[in-house]
Design a protein that fits this description.
The structure holds 2 protein chains of 2 kinds. Chain A is an alpha/beta fold. Chain A has 22 helices and 12 strands. In chain B, 74% of the residues lie in helices and 0% in strands. Classes of the chains: A alpha/beta, B mainly alpha.
């Protein structure tokens, strides 16, 4: 093992542990459930106890616990033991460790990035049969979301807390600039509006991009598709240094360095909220925070198009661990079914700001009433069916997100031609993809 | 650099004056540098303290508001009630107290043996100890977890504490200091009939107070702040420690109530800050003692 491979294997604690976890196929042998202690042990007495490792804290954590409590009170057979285990990455790391130690939960929340690793590792349960048995219709879920967790016609990962990028604009500035009260149809239209926004509108800049740390590669994924390109294809062929991806990068470079309309913000929410930039792109999950802190009327719109529309999904879903005994796996699925009920999916979406993941929740009276009160949120939900899962380069290649993000920073800050910046990125991605290809 | 009287006398007066002017300027520069360095450390703490009394809009606003216009004292009770912080406090006190105690006892015994005892393979053991210094924590997490899980100690205090009970760095730190102690003193005590433990307790440790305090402080900070290991080895809310408690306040999508998070951070770091202020005189007196000795 040379130094580089060693660094890759050990560098991110998550990465190394997941690789170690991969060595242990968890399909067979004696696997224990983490022991119950304290109050949970009492409450679970005489019931099937399902250990659920989740990643939500603060308001979302309380909302999830409330749903678990309601589920536990609604019937007498199953007890959901909801245990918070840190961020998505920390939860994944714990799960990998637990798989190696054979003390495994029955259900876990896994992000769009981490779930793939456990799927490749054969740690996840195929849920297709449970859907049929319990007559839960997979088609009730938004296609692009359930589709992401479906491989070879089987469902491995069910959408739960999903978000997407959204276009935000300062309605007060748009008014002052004499622009219509809507988002731009295309990026070129935004550039045309730019002069008015920076002139009459009083904006310092037209659009705030962000840095690698704030996931600019997630946001730029949309741009790449909008220009007809891709980061990579399903077989890990890297496409970021050709076609639409490079054109999107060049457009961005000129917008920033020639037109002086775009720039890289440390945190685009803060700059937008303070009126430095007239528009920005940020997660739907940030809507509540932006509206709370902004000193003006916030407007939202679907992402601008260029050659076509493009918008990635983000966030997390739920997986059931294959190693759990059948009884507990079915019990865990009962909880997934409970969460999919329109009233529950709607209340979860309303409290947390995540997207309603089922069509029935979207159509529910509760949600429709909420849309009327929050038209900005409705825009995000309307955009949802048009979204698609991200390219493999960002999801599956180790450190792919940061590799692409750093390349973008070179364009945004150093005015490096997109072709040159992305050529380096592509080389790095190809190197890092080798490992995944071998283990996949 | 010493300047002899003759040399000084032979210099024209003007040179002397510019020199003292330069010296004055130098000390001004020195103070400016000191001030800047102090600011680098103080501003984040100041920001944390003031932000803990602000609402979200006041935190996010630009240009920044340094003093909260309407202090939101309710951030503190809100933070304390957002997660079971009383329980987290008790847990952290237990794991830190016993963790530090075990680590220091262990390190003192190891260092004593490495310096004052003669046994075969001593150098080899020291080299292995040095090698252990270079292993990143992440590498040890999985083997430690497997051991603790096999012992059935997940979700227990001993599970959190024991893997941190032997830390190579602390033993190394104490060893380096023990080497500088005058052997004559130990010889004398030994002639009086003192055993090894007596020597360690009565002579070696009292003479090593500054280093010991430093070692304890480093250990306290490490244990108090430890996040990853306690997170991995515990599953349940009632076994969680303060740093994990802070993470309960964070929103996955970045909609964080920073005022509340800062308030919680204040009461999480406060004991450490107080401990530092109390303990620093021991470290400083130790440093001075070392200087005069040299």
């Amino acid at each position: 093992m040379d130094r580089r491979t060693f660094l890759i294997r050990s560098g991110g604690a998550v990465g190394s542990l997941i690789l170690v976890g991969c060595g242990n196929n968890s399909g067979s042998g004696s696997v224990q459930q983490p022991a119950a202690t304290g109050e949970a042990a009492k409450a679970a007495e005489g019931k099937t106890r399902v250990v659920f490792w989740s990643s939500w804290s603060a308001t979302s954590g309380e909302a999830l616990q409330k749903l678990a409590d309601e589920f536990n009170a609604s019937q007498k057979e199953i007890f959901i033991d909801n245990q918070y285990q840190g961020t998505y990455e920390e939860t994944a790391q714990k799960l990998a460790t637990a798989l190696a130690a054979r003390q495994v939960p029955d259900m876990a929340s896994l992000s769009e990035v981490t779930w793939n690793k456990f799927f490749l590792n054969n740690s996840l349960q195929d849920m297709t049969g449970y859907f049929t048995e319990t007559k839960l219709d997979p088609k009730d879920y938004v296609e692009s979301l359930i589709g992401e967790g479906t491989k070879d016609g089987k469902i491995w990962w069910v959408p739960f807390a999903r978000s997407t990028p959204l276009f935000y604009y300062n309605r007060d500035m748009f008014k002052k600039a004499g622009l219509p009260d809507r988002g731009p149809k295309t990026w070129d239209e935004l550039r045309e509006w730019g002069k008015d926004l920076m002139g009459k509108g009083g904006a310092k800049k037209v659009f705030a991009y962000t840095n690698a740390k704030n996931y600019n590669a997630w946001h730029f994924q949309a741009n790449v598709w909008q220009w007809g390109g891709a980061y990579s294809d399903k077989d890990f062929n890297i496409l970021i240094d050709e076609g639409g991806a490079v054109e999107a990068g060049e457009w961005l470079r000129k917008f920033v360095h020639q037109d002086k309309m775009g720039y890289m913000a440390d945190d685009q929410s803060i700059d937008f909220g303070n009126g430095l930039a007239a528009t920005t792109q940020q997660s739907t999950g940030s809507l509540g925070g932006i509206v709370e802190t902004a000193k003006f009327e916030v407007g939202t719109a679907m992402l601008p198009e260029q050659e076509k529309f493009g918008c990635p999904t983000g966030g997390a879903g739920l997986g059931i661990l294959a190693s759990a005994p059948d009884e507990r796996k079915r019990a865990a699925f009962e909880f997934i079914r409970f969460l999919a009920k329109p009233e529950n999916a709607a209340s979860w979406a309303k409290t947390t700001g995540y997207m309603p993941v089922t069509k029935s929740a979207r159509e529910s009276k509760e949600m429709q009433a909420y849309f009327k009160e929050n038209p900005n949120y409705q825009v995000a939900v309307e955009q949802l069916p048009k979204t698609q899962p991200q390219d493999t380069a960002r999801l599956l290649i180790p450190n792919g997100d940061q590799t692409i993000g750093t390349g973008l920073e070179r364009i945004l800050v150093n005015n490096t031609p997109a072709q040159e910046a992305f050529k380096n990125v592509a080389k790095q991605l190809e190197d890092d993809a080798k490992e995944v290809k071998e283990s996949a | 650099m010493d300047v002899t009287a003759d040399e000084a006398r032979s210099r024209p007066r003007g040179v002397q004056e510019t020199q003292s002017r330069w010296a004055g300027l130098g000390s001004v520069m020195q103070y400016v540098l000191l001030l800047l360095t102090a600011l680098v450390f103080i501003v984040p703490l100041f920001w944390m303290a003031t932000a803990s009394l602000k609402g979200l809009q006041e935190i996010y606003t630009f240009p920044p508001v340094w003093i909260p216009t309407q202090p939101k004292w309710e951030n503190y009770p809100n933070a304390w009630n957002a997660a079971p912080f009383t329980r987290f406090y008790i847990n952290t006190l237990i794991t830190t107290f016993f963790g530090v105690g075990l680590e220091i006892v262990n390190a003192a015994l190891t260092a004593y043996a490495l310096v004052f005892l003669r046994f075969p393979g001593k150098n080899l053991i020291f080299i292995v100890l040095l090698a252990a210094l270079m292993i990143p924590v992440q590498v040890t997490i999985l083997p430690n977890y497997l051991t603790i899980a096999a012992l059935g100690w997940l979700n227990t205090y001993q599970g959190i504490i024991l893997p941190g009970a032997s830390v190579a760095f602390t033993a190394f730190l104490l060893r380096q200091h023990f080497l500088t102690l005058p052997t004559a003193l130990l010889e004398a005590a030994r002639l009086e009939g003192a055993g090894h433990l007596q020597l360690l307790w009565r002579i070696v440790l009292p003479l090593s107070r500054p280093v010991l305090v430093t070692g304890i402080l480093i250990s306290v900070v490490a244990k108090w702040n430890d996040f990853l290991w306690p997170l991995i080895v515990t599953n349940r809310l009632n076994m969680r420690v303060l740093p994990i408690g802070l993470s309960y306040l964070f929103d996955r999508e970045g909609n964080n109530q920073w005022g509340i998070i800062m308030a919680a951070t204040i009461f999480v770091v406060m004991p450490i800050v107080i401990l530092f202020i109390w303990a620093q005189r021991h470290i400083i007196s130790g440093l001075i003692a070392g200087a005069t000795k040299g």
